[in-house]
Sequence to fold (78 residues):
Amino acid sequence: MRPIRASEVGTYLYCARAWWYRQKGIESTNQAEMTTGTELHRAHGRQVIASSLTRTLALILLLVALVLLVAFCTRQII
Fold:
């Protein structure tokens, strides 16, 4: 008995029949839809990374603005 991989568990949980077909070496008939779905997942992943980078940049700019504000206020007092 061969070990079951984590990706196979995900396939089984999604569709036990798809898992069984894959075990028997039968190719899926909806390759176009699967390719489209894979591309949508990749595009979403790129959007998540872009939004994370944008958020990080915004936080850095906010910190720079706060440091400049403190420096300006300190300069006005002295």
Summary: The mean pLDDT is 90. The chain has one domain: 6-77. The chain is about 85% helix and 0% strand. Residues 6-77 form one domain.
